[in-house]
TrEMBL record:
Residues 29-89 form the Wall-associated receptor kinase galacturonan-binding domain. It is a single-pass type I membrane protein. Keywords: Disulfide bond, Glycoprotein, Membrane, Signal, Transferase, Transmembrane, Transmembrane helix. The chain crosses the membrane at residues 301-319. The keyword Transferase applies. This is Uncharacterized protein. One of its GO terms (cellular component) is membrane. InterPro entries: Kinase-like_dom_sf, WAK, WAK_GUB. GO terms for molecular function: polysaccharide binding; protein serine/threonine kinase activity. It comes from Stephania cephalantha. Its main location: membrane. Pfam families: GUB_WAK_bind, WAK. SUPFAM superfamilies: Protein kinase-like (PK-like) (SSF56112). Residues 167-222 form the Wall-associated receptor kinase domain.
Length: 473
């Protein structure tokens, strides 16, 4: 019970935390492509109410002809998106600039040069991505679209494969360099002037690419087997995950707030200026969770938790109550209570001899099961007395006392069942005039309280059946 009482709130809590995740998309719009969830301001399809329209950044489409389906910006079919977060990041798969030899030494017609041109809302993450080149005798360059604002690159050399180390991308077989802030278009190229003399088997291909460095680790085998190690492919050509920063461009928070109709942040949401290029992002206020770009998207989890606590404690209470009632009934039936009751109602005077007590009456009669009221203890129960008889037929009293003793026996087989007790009492009643019964103003009660095993049900209030007989001292 305790277990399920704990489980229920946990399940509810999980549900309440999952709920905002599930409803991150605009209501009525497709919310995922394969297993990639699409949070608003991103949206799938042609319905302009499903995504934020201002730039072509947020309109996506899902190409189901791939398995699993692939997500793209509308109008693009070469750079799939593999994840999007509300914290302003998205991961794209992008081809490297590649340059390979055939075994006879001539060059394949691979692309020495790759131009990466992202939609207006994106910038290459300068914190997560590194410009990377793999190869022996590889010189790789990058520049902005015009090549006028910045140019950078790295050179990788290896005299022998034995000099190359796993995990070390610092100039021997692999090189890396950082990229600047606020870049949306990159021109990646390789220069083949120096690199036509290396062994085909050790290093048939050279690569230059941008990559999410949290994902990338260099292995020596990349020199001859790179495309086989990388899990991502586009049309069977290796592709690399690139981290993009997205934002609502191009106004700052302060500027954007002036125009309420175009301001992206909704109730209980704050605004944060983009750290990569002009623009801003929205965040739910402290204590709120969900999608800050959606109407009523930010929900207070504190309220939810309180509500859940109330609901789950109520459920717990109901369960406990029902269990108690069920237990009482079970014990009553188990001990032949029905039989006894039937038997009693069948003879008019029996009420004076035998009576079934409620646990309340019992508690009162035994002074809350006080030690001094205990007549004896058996393996399965304890016999209590309540009031002492004045006079009575000693033989009968003796018989009843013997019966009580038998009731206290440890072994279940030797102990009489309730049915037997009822019958014996009935026998006693019929065999005598039982003047003593009628005369006795006071009665002694002989109460058998069920307490199986070590569990003390008497304290828990589960007492069910008692027989009341006259007994002398
Ligand atoms: C989507 O599914 C692929 C495999 O089918 C798995 O590698 C990837 O982790 C999943 N992504 C998410 C966000 O669940
Ligand atoms: C989806 O992918 C298939 C196969 O790659 C391609 O032929 C098709 O043009 C794509 N669909 C769209 C709408 O671009
Ligand atoms: C080298 O091999 C490729 C493919 O097998 C072939 O197209 C090319 O003509 C060959 N080059 C020379 C110089 O033999
Ligand atoms: C590099 O790592 C691979 C895979 O873990 C391993 O098989 C190989 O022996 C390592 N090579 C060197 C030079 O450490
Ligand atoms: C890309 O850069 C290379 C070398 O820097 C240059 O030759 C080429 O013209 C550039 N391409 C574009 C489209 O700017
Ligand atoms: C190419 O390799 C050959 C033999 O291995 C060597 O003689 C030649 O100097 C090398 N050329 C360059 C440019 O490294
Ligand atoms: C997105 O995918 C990349 C590449 O698999 C992974 O490194 C990154 O952790 C993912 N980001 C999120 C938020 O799932
Ligand atoms: C390339 O990698 C695959 C496994 O990914 C392996 O079976 C194969 O032998 C490797 N090829 C070379 C030339 O090392
Ligand atoms: C506010 O934004 C709306 C929607 O983008 C635009 O039509 C309107 O011109 C803007 N108003 C001002 C004063 O900039």
């Amino acid at each position: 019970m305790l277990w399920s009482a704990l489980l229920i709130p946990v399940l509810f809590l999980e549900w309440s935390m999952a709920a905002p995740l599930l409803s991150q998309t605009k209501p009525g719009c497709p919310d995922r492509c394969g297993n990639i969830s699409i949070p608003y301001p991103f949206g799938l399809g042609d319905d302009p109410s499903c995504f934020r329209e201002e730039t072509s950044t947020f309109q996506l489409y899902c190409n189901d002809s791939y398995n699993p389906p692939r997500l793209f910006n509308t109008g693009d079919d070469s750079t799939p998106i593999i994840n999007i977060t509300l914290q302003g990041q998205a991961t794209f798969l992008i081809w490297p600039a590649t340059y390979c030899f055939y075994s006879n030494g001539s060059l394949t017609d691979d692309s020495f040069n790759v131009i990466l041109k992202m939609r207006e809302g994106y910038r290459f993450s300068y914190t997560r991505n590194k410009f990377t080149a793999i190869g022996c005798d590889t010189s790789a360059f990058m520049s902005d679209a015009s090549g006028l604002n910045f140019q950078s690159g790295c050179y990788s050399f290896c005299k022998s494969i034995s000099n190359v180390l796993n995990g070390s991308c610092s100039g021997i077989g692999c090189c890396q360099t950082a990229i600047p802030k606020d870049v949306r278009i990159l021109n990646l190229t390789q220069d083949n002037r120096y690199s036509q003399n290396f062994s085909y088997t050790s290093n048939p291909c050279r690569y230059a690419f941008l990559v999410d460095n949290d994902w990338f680790t260099f292995y020596v085998s990349d020199l001859w087997n790179f495309s086989k190690r990388v899990e991502y492919k586009i049309n069977n050509i290796v592709a690399l995950p690139v981290a993009m920063d997205w934002a609502i461009r191009d106004l700052t928070c302060e500027e954007a707030k002036r125009n309420r109709s175009s301001y992206a942040c909704m109730q209980h949401a704050g605004c944060i200026d983009s750290s990569n290029g002009p623009g801003y992002l929205c965040r739910c206020d402290k204590g709120y969770e969900g999608n800050p770009y959606l109407e009523n998207g930010c929900q207070g989890p504190i309220f939810g938790t309180l509500f859940l606590l109330i609901v789950s404690s109520w459920i717990y209470w109901v369960f406990q109550k029902r269990k108690l009632i069920r237990l009482k009934d079970d014990f009553f039936l188990q001990n032949g209570g029905m039989l006894l009751q039937q038997h009693l109602t069948s003879c008019e005077r029996s009420a004076e001899i035998i009576k079934i007590f409620t646990s309340e009456e019992l508690r009162k009669a035994t002074d809350n099961y006080h030690e001094s009221h205990i007549l004896g203890r058996g393996g399965y129960g304890t016999v209590y007395k309540d009031v002492v008889v004045k006079e009575g037929d000693l033989d009968q009293i003796q018989e009843v006392a013997n019966l009580a003793k038998r009731c206290l026996r440890l072994s279940g087989e030797e102990r009489p069942s309730m049915k037997e007790v009822a019958m014996e009492l009935e026998g006693l009643r019929l065999s005598e005039k039982h003047a003593w019964i009628e005369q006795n103003l006071e009665e002694t009660e002989h109460l058998l309280v069920e307490s199986p095993g070590s569990f003390d049900y008497s304290n828990a209030g589960y007492e069910t059946i008692t027989t009341k007989v006259n007994i002398g001292r």
